[in-house]
Amino acid sequence: MSTIIQIKRSQTTDVPSGLANGEMAYSFSNDKLFIGQTDTSTAAVTNDIVGGRYFTNMLSHAHGVLTSNSALVTDSNSHIDQVITGGLVLGASGTTANAITGIQFDSDMSTANGTMLVTAAAVKSYVDDTAGNIVSEFEIGDNTGSNVSFTTGSLLSFLGNTGEVQTSTAHIEGTNTAVTFGLVSTGVEAGTYGNTTSIPTFTVDEKGRITSVSNNALSTNLSIAGDSGTDGDGVELLGQTLTVSGNTGQTISYVTNNAIQVALTDSVAINDALTVGGNATVSGDAAVTGTSALNGVTATTVQANGTLDVTGDTTLTTVSASGTASLNDVTATTVQANGTLDVTGDTTLTTVSASGAASLNGVTTTTLDANNAATFADTVAVTGDTTLSTVSASGAASLHAVTATTIAANSTITGAAGLNIAGTSALNGVTSTSLQSNGDLTVGGSGTVAGDFTITETLAAGNTAISGDMTISGDLTVSGNLSYLAVENLVTNDPLMKLGNSNVTDTVDLGFYGMYNGGTYAGLARDASDGKFRLFTGLDVEPDTEVNLSGAGYTAATLVVGSLELADSDVSVAQGGTGANTIVQNGVVFGQGTEAVKTAVGTEGKILQSLANGQPVFSDLDGGSF
What is this structure's pTM? Predict the structure, then answer.
């Protein structure tokens, strides 16, 4: 396929007239190519000559040969045989040029100037005539004021003595002249200072030189002291060893990497009252015959035949007390008290057993056993933020703000005794005939009603939460204004979803919507006012019974479909269609206002153009003539 494009041209006129900006024209009369150009949109268009055979003929000759009435064209070596000029101007681009007007042939440089070039012969003659005037000897001196002569052609050396930096005197060594350097003496005698019993003291001036030095005696005797005893003559550091010994059966000492460590022995026996006020770690068993008070202690086994009082950040594995046991801020695996057990503070217990009354406050425990094995004979009272794994009680159990895996009183809590929970509680795997909660109640476990989890009485006032799976075999009726389903996926067996069950008078909008960006809404809804369905996005006002079409951010959403089938075959222009049910093959569609669109069809090589009325047509591209 070929397309004919013709620019404006003339066989007789030298210069075209009336060119537009960027329009081209060719004159065969003078063989020049023109283009119209203007500097601004309002300035007049002028003709610029941009080429033509007139100029190309000036380049059509042998390369590297000077040709009259032609351009200079070099050969492949960038060479031209000759250049004839009345003057030569040399200068870098952008600088003031130097005009060369003549050649200097003789050695008389008195007439030389900036417009003449000098030949090599003239330069040689000038140098030969003036070389005899060069100076070959000069004076050199040092900081003492002594000067000597130096003759060119000799070796000039500057030498420095090892460890010296200051200039000294100048002297003659044969035919060569040399300068040496040195330091002025500070008066310090050369030698070694300091030894095993003394250390040296130096004075250094601003130049870094040592101006004085002296020895100072060093003490080598170390005095020592203890709770009892005397040190005698102390320890001679150069010849004696300082030994730190442990007390038999209580402490032991050992040295590792120049460090002395003192520790308790594996088994410590204390036959009197024991009070630990700081942080203590007992790796073995600790047995105390009398009353014991522990604070900040870590021990594997603690046994007290009397009263046991534990406070502070204490960690115990097994605790046993024949009398009253009081625990505060304690972590223990097993606690057994044959008397009253009082546990307060942030305490974590795994298994707790007491023969007398047990009082727990702010306690975390795995097993709380009352009247089972080692028994609690009295009522179990648990208050504060307490976490329990298993609770068993023969009497009534009163719990406050409790989290427990299993809570059982006589296996199943029944009758008037019941289970009373005063605060917010979380229960798992509970079977109860009478279950009452005055605060929030969270129930976990299997979560299947009438299965593993059974509640036969009505829950008291408060919020009820059920974690885990939940199966309801009958209908579920939810009353209220809002129902929330906090799930990732919603699955239903119903094939159709019914909305607006009570909308008998068509007064509310129908549809669905979702939220994004924390408060922006999008969805599809039927407008009750006109019966039209609208797909919307960007709405900042959450829909209630209607979608607010004038609400902030409301925008008609974009719908992406694979194909769209319409009831009407021809969609009018007014409705966003073409008004036509067919389009001419390979045609270019153009509008006709409110009428149906039309098409323009071209043939091979034709170019789409506009008629005077703006209608598109296909035709050749012709610039005309001048």
Answer: 0.30
